[in-house]
Amino acid sequence: MRQPRPLSLMIVRQLMRPGFPIVVLLTFLAIATGLKMGLDSAEDTQIQQTLAAETNDLARQLEQDFLNHVLALRRMAERREARPDMPVEVWRRDARQYLEDFRTFQAIEWIDQSFTIRWLEPMEGNEGVLGYNVAFSDARRKALEEAQETGEPDISGVIELEQGGTGLVVYAPIGEGNQSNGFIAGVFRMERLADALVLPRIRDRFSLALIEDGSVAFSLLSDQPTADRFSYTSALDLPSVTWSLRATPTLPWMNRYRSIWPWVTFISMVALGILVSLSILLAQLILKRNQDLLRTRRELEAEIDQRVAVQQDLARLESTDALTGLANRRFFMEDLEHTLTQADRKMQQVALIMMDLDRFQTLNDSLGHQFGDELLIRVSQRLNRLSDERVMVAYSGGDEFMICQQHVGNIDDVIHLLGQIKSCFARPFQVHGEPHSITATMGVAVYPQSGLDADILLRNADIALYRAKERGRNTYQFYTEGMQDREVRRLELDKDLSEALAGDQFELHYQPQLDLITSRACSVEALIRWNHPQRGMVPPVEFIPLAEESGRIAEIGRWVIQAACRQLRAWQNTNLSHLRIAINLSGRELDQPDLPDYIGQCLLDSGVAPHQLEIELTEESFIANIEHNHEQLRRISELGVHLAIDDFGVGYSSLGYLRNFPVDLLKIDRSFITNVAQQQDDAVITRAIINLAHNLGIRVVAEGVETKEQLRFLYNHQCDLAQGYLVGRPMPARKLAEKLTQGLLPESLKHNS
């Protein structure tokens, strides 16, 4: 399962992103903007509150000043009420006094009960209104009548004056109800009223607007520019009119309440953001440089580790076999030399075991090299389990292994290890999904008895291995004195074997086969002999295994085919012309694709009929690489050459190849014939083989016939042919003619048969 990344690592990776300083700068810019907007908003609120306070104060003062004028008019109306007969001159004097005291009046008028202006002061500039009826509309009449009834002043609101211009009129009733004697009215021009009441206070601070019934009735603009987004409206508490005063501040007034701190805060935060961003950028550069340095360091360390690993691999490759994983021959020999040095110093014994896999070459050739490699790996895995501080297992090459055992106390220690090695082969090996049983042959050399250095010990273990193979494989052999002499002789024979082919030192001997029906020889088996110039006649048992190991067996086999064909041609037109010659072929020879063509060419060149030649193969050769061998044998059989299975009964004895292969003859192995007249089991097996072969249409030859009891048994059970010393030993061709002329069986044997 994938491990989660640490939180700190994730944070560091986010901080290392290239855009992070920009994000920080934008964050500080947003904070600075927010703070400035907050401070500006606070200032705006403060300005709005101050504007409201001053507007309210201005409205109250305006109310008070205006009400003072109304009170003055009411006092004048009360005096007129008290003196209904007041002369006009007295009234004018009082009016002029009021005009002097209150410079805001445009004019003071007396209006009679019929709402007509009768008296007027001053006359100058106001002549046109004398005799003017102020109830010029139903609304004005209704308002004036209501003022007469209640005795409360009436204000006309902002109107167009008859004298010209815009103004307003305040009507103070003289008495009330039926006692009303008209009105004392004060006429105000708006410009003059505003100038007298408020203009000095607001000229450089505000622009004013008088709101009546929701619309601007009069505006008083300042000489200074105004901040239109700020304004405040305050209601005026005046009798009979609904006015509001709206004030709009000028920029100079508003700037008095502005502070530099919002901008200072904004600039400070932006500067701080720039510094922090630059610091982060610098930190990123430093961290990136450190990371680059660390990465470079890790790369250097990785390269160093890789080089160390390569050196270790090279050292391991120098000491280990790449296929099996075991120690290779070079390392094993170096370790063996060191082990022998230690053993010499401590006076200890060391055992060297050379091991060879039986039938490996056959399996490798028949099933393929990939199979062979896989089998070697499986064997190596089992053998490697034996390795410990006392035992080293190595792969020598091919199908050979070497095992060194240190601290050997006595020979029983070595025998115990040999038993462990054999137990490794007790179970079949699974190769390519199929079980394969295999055995091993071992040769043992013990230091110091069998050699005092590694090379001699190895050579003697190899000699012991060869002797173990001669004894029948799947066994072991200790090196003993005298083996070396035989090995030297074997090596000399191996060297001379190549000269034997060139010098025509081989010859064929022929052992006759007796036809038990006609008591005549119908065929002979050709057996090769080596007439060595110095050693004399060398038996096949000594040089055939050498030829198998060296690969010369194919050349020898072809020489045998040629020699047999030449002999058959020599026997033509003689009393031996009826004979058939049987020659033995090995599995290696059968593997050669051109073998059938070679046999056919030899028969053609010698002018010999193909049925006079018989090819003998062991059971093992038949089943090795079955598909290939079946094709080879089919081609040979199509030539007309007879095919025989040699040593039948001791191998696989499979009925399948008897059915599938073109077999003409079975040769019962001599191991069954030796005691066929004494042991019931051998007799039963021999009879079964004869009956089986006859039922399949195959003739039977019994090998190793040496007694007349054996011959009688074979005759009584319809065996077709007999071969053995009783019939005749292998002999040269010249002696064979004499033997056949004299007859194969003495008269006594013929009679007994």
Mind telling me the CATH superfamily name of the largest domain? CHASE domain
Given the C-alpha coordinates, what overall shape results? rod-shaped
Number of domains: 3
- The residue-averaged pLDDT reads 82
- What's the helical proportion of residues? 40-55%
Q: Please report which band the strand proportion falls in: under 5%, 5-15%, 15-25%, 25-35%, 35-45% or over 45%.
A: 15-25%
Name the strands of the widest sheet in spatial order: 18-19-21-22-23-24-25-26
Number of helices: 26
Q: Which radius of gyration do the C-alpha atoms yield? A: 70 Å
Number of strands: 26
Architecture per CATH nomenclature, i.e. the level-2 architecture of the largest domain: 2-Layer Sandwich
* CATH C-level category of the largest domain: Alpha Beta
Cα end-to-end separation: 87 Å
Low-pLDDT stretches: none
CATH T-level fold name of the largest domain: Beta-Lactamase
Structural class: alpha+beta
Biggest β-sheet description: 8 strands, mixed, barrel
Can you give a write-up of this model?
The mean pLDDT is about 80. It contains 26 helices and 26 strands. It has three domains: about 30-270, 2-Layer Sandwich (Beta-Lactamase); about 320-480, Alpha-Beta Plaits; about 510-750, TIM Barrel, CATH 3.20.20.450. With about 750 residues, the chain is of the alpha+beta class. The strands form five sheets. The chain has an eight-stranded mixed β-barrel, surrounded by four helices. Strands 1, 2, 3, 4, 5 and 6 form a six-stranded antiparallel sheet that branches. Helices cover about 50% and strands about 20% of the residues. The chain starts with 6 loop residues before the first helix and ends with a helix. A hairpin with a 2-residue loop joins strand 12 (about 390-395) and strand 13. GO terms for molecular function: cyclic-guanylate-specific phosphodiesterase activity. One of its GO terms (biological process) is signal transduction. It is an enzyme of class 3 (hydrolase). Its EC number is 3.1.4.52. Keywords: c-di-GMP, Coiled coil, Membrane, Transmembrane, Transmembrane helix.
